[in-house]
């Protein structure tokens, strides 16, 4: 069954979770489909990505019907092998969006729980609807988050907020999620906002946008000297190059740039 759709228009990839009858809950097929979608987008000529979910919510988390199957498998063989660099397949659901060289904007509505929340954390920017509810849901089932969230959340949240959400599995509403750092902005129509921002980004210098994503990613994990050197390296590789020259020419002429 189809789990994810991809549409590419004007250099923007629209990636949609398409399991609305289950509120886009994650089963094994959904995990494989999300990773495959990220990898397919990575091979395409895109400048931005919009990630969203069909139906009543972005994702209800892990499909509860999957728990029985999980309990019947050897956990060591299920989660310990590294299938994607330093990550397993479950973790790659979120990290595949971090690995993309272009910005990813998530449009979140309804519920964004558990596996769905960790998937959304892989995005660079997250718009949420006023009625959105978010939860680190794993403790409800006697588990801990294991889909990349513990790599991504510390970049966004204070430690006490992360601990509270992890220990309790309590859902929080959009205003608190915004205050905690899980959301970038609350908007009436997250999908329209995400599409508008993706279109704006797609109109910028492609090489500069990719450089900016590399640089901001590095800034979270590198020391001062490495970041300063990376700033200089990225800028050196942009100055005087075709994308920069076209940006300047378009600005001077009052027109939209056309990048080749």
Q: From the 3D coordinates, which CATH architecture of the largest domain would you assign? A: Alpha-Beta Complex
Tally the beta strands: 9
- By CATH, the topology of the largest domain is 2-enoyl-CoA Hydratase, Chain A, domain 1
The CATH superfamily title of the largest domain: 2-enoyl-CoA Hydratase, Chain A, domain 1
Largest sheet: 6 strands, mixed
List the uncertain runs. Answer: none
- State the secondary-structure class: alpha/beta
Number of helical stretches of at least 4 residues: 12
| Order of the strands making up the biggest sheet | 1-2-3-4-6-9
Strand content: 5-15%
User: Class of the largest domain, according to the CATH hierarchy?
Assistant: Alpha Beta
CA-based gyration radius = 19 Å
Describe the structure.
The chain has 260 residues and is an alpha/beta fold. The protein has two domains: 4-201, Alpha-Beta Complex (2-enoyl-CoA Hydratase, Chain A, domain 1), CATH 3.90.226; 205-253, Lyase 2-enoyl-coa Hydratase, Chain  A, domain 2. Helix content is 47%, strand content 14%. The strands form two sheets. A six-stranded mixed sheet has the order 1-2-3-4-6-9, sandwiched between helices. It has a three-stranded mixed sheet with strand order 5-7-8.
Secondary structure layout plus pairing:
Elements: E1 4-9, E2 12-17, H1 28-43, E3 48-53, H2 66-71, H3 75-79, H4 89-99, E4 104-108, E5 111-113, H5 114-121, E6 125-128, E7 133-135, H6 149-152, H7 159-168, E8 172-173, H8 174-180, E9 185-186, H9 190-202, H10 206-219, H11 224-238, H12 242-253
Parallel strand pairs: 2-3, 3-4, 4-6, 5-7, 6-9
Antiparallel strand pairs: 1-2, 7-8
